[in-house]
Amino acid sequence: MNALTGEALEHARAEAQDGIRALRSRKHELDRDSLDLILTGARSHYAWSDRPVPGELLEQIYEITASGPTSMNSCPARFVFVTSSEAKERLAKSLKPANVGKMMGAPVTAIIAHDLEFWQELPFLFPHEDRRKLFEGKEKFIADTAFRNGTLQGAYFMIAARALGLDVGAMSGFANHVVDEEFFAGTSLRSNFLCNLGYADESALFQKLPRFPFDKVCKVI
């Protein structure tokens, strides 16, 4: 554990606070086009152009994703980028038939997974207090925390990809146990969902499906 103390801690806190204030003064909120790009106007895609996705862009997506908040900064998500024909054939074993073409046509398919041993890394990620004792021997708490926060990171991942100009198509129509056996055997990683990445062929889109209005699913109390 290497937590900051004394003057170093005070300086780091002041720097963080000033940084947030400066950011807010430069950019208070996103404009409408930016919101449309990442969520309100964005779509899930099923068909892809043959334009490749450079590895540097995958690294940028991860760096943005890693900045998103997780409980105790636990960062349990792990990402496997499936790009080769051989790896895609392995992944195809897990998919429902209707999803095979979607995955095979995408330049990249990310396996969004989480590590059930994430808590062992807390001395690095959460250095000012050793929280490992909260997890030792508590398998359900470990699994719940990993799944919940790994899912959050998966959502950050999709937004980050869209923000950097890529299109995404998340998929849950697959067998998790097959993915885990094929890619994570003998490890503490477990798959959550899949996400195709690339530059979409928009001609495959259909109209946007309905969403619930605020009053149907929200309550202010």
Describe this structure in words.
This protein has about 220 residues and is an alpha+beta fold. The protein contains nine helices and four strands, in the order H-H-H-E-H-H-E-H-H-E-H-E-H. The mean pLDDT is about 95. The N and C termini lie far apart (about 40 Å). The chain has helices spanning about 5-25, 30-40, 55-65, 85-90, 95-105, 120-125, 140-165, 175-185, 215; strands at about 75-80, 110-115, 165-170, 190-200. The protein is globular, with a radius of gyration of 20 Å. It has a four-stranded antiparallel beta sheet, with helices on both faces.
Keyword list:
4 strands, alpha+beta, NADH Oxidase, four-stranded antiparallel sheet
Write the layout of secondary structure elements.
Blueprint: H1 6-26, H2 32-40, H3 55-66, E1 77-82, H4 85-92, H5 97-105, E2 108-115, H6 122-125, H7 139-163, E3 167-171, H8 176-183, E4 189-198, H9 214-217
Antiparallel strand pairs: 1-2, 2-4, 3-4
Helix pairs in contact: 2-7, 3-7
In short:
The chain has 221 residues and is of the alpha+beta class. Helices cover 45% and strands 13% of the residues.
CATH fold category name: NADH Oxidase
**Average pLDDT metric:** 96
CATH superfamily: NADH Oxidase
Evaluate the radius of gyration. 20 Å
N-to-C SSE string, H for helix and E for strand: HHHEHHEHHEHEH
Q: Which residues sit in consecutive blocks of at least 5 with pLDDT less than 50? A: none
The appropriate CATH architecture is: 3-Layer(aba) Sandwich
What's the number of extended β-strand segments?
4
| CATH class designation | Alpha Beta
Shape summary: globular
- How many helical stretches? 9
Oligomer: single chain
Q: How large a portion of the residues is in β-strands, by DSSP E?
A: 5-15%
Span of the ends, CA to CA: 42 Å
